[in-house]
Write a structure and sequence with these properties.
Helix content is 53%, strand content 19%. It has 481 residues and is α+β, with helices and mostly antiparallel strands. Helix 5 packs antiparallel against helix 7. The two termini are 29 Å apart.
Length: 481
């Protein structure tokens, strides 16, 4: 019968499951915190750039108001007013130059004249059309994109600097309409340092959030995984119990079928043995001399076979209808000793019984095993010469109860061994040739095995292996045990 499937091995152990679950949760948490860090970093950076843009826009508006109200200030149009206001605002620290565009976004002029005139960015121009300031930071801007010419350009080694482009709308006088656009090119080293400080602060905050959330997550997951581990163990135990029940049902079905066959065989042997016993009895007085002795031996063998068949039928009937009780293996050995005592005394053979273990057996199993052992011990007693010893030893190995029967006879002939457990003519004086065959049937009925493990001039050893599983392992204890 196949061994039970270890269902519990399908589930990870609680320690591994907890570490795996926490690891996956921490990975998800890390990705979430990182995504949040990137989002907050981008928003704050944009706010910093927009802050500087709003400051330049406010300064430009103030300069426009100042110029429009200044005494003696004569400006031809609003564009020139905006140009002058932007130039005055460029005196702020860090402004490298200004690009001017008309109301349609076309390049108009630069200040100073060495500033590179570049097309205006579409997003920046749309902000200006909405009369809003726009700021964008560039961490690595070639100086050739800022100035038309510098002495360093002659070496073909063009430096790169951080810049901030601030685009502000230039308004018409006394009207909220676009007169032009001024784009300030601002040195970006100060804002780069501010970005670095921002990254450090946000990074530390992200690590703090990740650590605190990770500890809280692990503390929340641990009880959940403990509960899941208990549920998995319970499920595994229930599956194993279900497998054992299925095995027991299968064993019961097989045992019932085998028991029916065994009972049918015993009933079939009962009547012929009775007739044979009557016939031999009628011939006993008529056979003189040596023939009479042979008839008496045949009569003794026939009556032993009748007793074995009757005992087998009684045990099979008990197994199907009578309440069970518990018998220990030690009690079973004592029962076997009592049943063969007459044989050992008659043959002057000593029976040495060793109970190496004591296990509980249900009474039907013990009774059938007792029939097998009685037959094996009687055969051993018959094979052992007068004054010899027969050893009956009970042991336990890997949930199998073993009974070892050893005699001191001359061994079993080699030509007999292949058909030892088949009905045949016995080579032993007074033997019937059916005892081992019936013992094999009974062992099969129990799901056990009986075999010859050793034979020779120093004797033979038979071994009965009785598995302590199914109904045997689950036999209820009672006061009788």
């Amino acid at each position: 019968m196949a061994a039970p499937i270890e269902v519990e091995s399908w589930f990870p152990r609680s320690g591994r499951a907890f570490l795996l679950g926490v690891g996956m949760a921490l990975v998800v948490l890390a990705l979430t915190v990182f995504a949040g860090w990137l989002l907050v970093r981008s928003l704050v950076r944009q706010q910093i750039a927009q802050r500087d843009a709003e400051a330049l826009y406010a300064t430009t508006l103030m300069e426009q108001v100042y110029l429009s109200e200044a005494e003696g200030q004569v400006l031809s149009d609003d564009a020139e007013l905006g140009f002058d206001a932007a130039v005055r605002a460029s005196r702020l620290k860090g402004v490298m130059g200004i690009r001017f565009y008309d109301a349609d976004g076309e390049p108009w002029d630069t200040f100073p004249a060495t500033i590179q005139p570049l097309p205006i960015d579409l997003e920046a121009f749309r902000s200006a059309q909405r009369l809003e300031a726009h700021g964008r930071y560039y961490p690595d801007t070639p100086l050739s994109d800022v100035f038309i010419y510098l002495p360093q350009f002659a070496t073909s080694n063009i430096p790169h600097v951080a810049t901030l482009e601030v685009t502000v709308p230039l308004l018409r006088r006394n009207e909220a309409q676009l007169a032009g656009v001024a784009q300030f090119v601002v040195e970006g080293e100060s804002i780069a340092r501010e970005y670095q400080r921002l990254d450090r602060h946000l990074g530390g905050l992200a690590l703090l959030v990740f650590g605190a959330a990770g500890i809280l997550l692990a503390a929340m997951l641990w009880p959940a995984f403990r509960k899941i581990a208990r549920l998995n163990r319970n499920l595994a135990e229930q599956n194993q119990s279900l497998q054992r029940v299925n095995q027991e049902l299968a064993l019961a079905a097989r045992s019932a079928a085998l028991g029916a066959v065994s009972a049918h065989l015993m009933h079939g042997l009962k009547n012929p043995l009775a007739s044979l016993s009557q016939f031999v009895s009628s011939q006993k007085e008529q056979a003189p001399g040596a023939d009479g002795e042979d008839v008496r031996d045949a009569l003794g063998a026939t009556r032993r076979m009748q007793a074995l068949v009757e005992q087998t039928l009684e045990v099979l009937a008990d197994a199907h209808g009578q309440p069970t009780y518990t018998v220990t293996s030690t009690e079973l050995l004592e029962m076997v000793r009592n049943k063969v005592s007459s044989q050992t005394e008659k043959r002057a053979v000593h029976l040495h019984v060793t109970a190496g273990t004591s296990r509980d057996l249900p009474s039907p199993t013990a009774n059938l095993a007792g029939l097998i052992l009685v037959n094996l011990v009687e055969n051993a007693v018959q094979a052992t010469p007068e004054g010899g010893t027969v050893n009956l030893v009970a042991g336990n190995a890997a949930d199998v109860l073993t009974f070892r029967v050893q005699d001191e006879g001359g061994g079993i002939p080699e030509h007999i061994r292949p058909k030892l457990f088949l009905p045949c003519k016995s080579t032993r004086e007074g033997g019937s040739g059916l005892g081992l065959a019936i013992s094999k049937q009974l062992a099969d009925y129990l799901g056990a095995s009986v075999e010859l493990v050793e034979t020779g001039t120093r004797g033979s050893v038979f071994l009965l292996r009785l598995p302590l599983t199914g109904a045997v392992a689950k036999a209820p204890r009672s006061a009788a045990g």
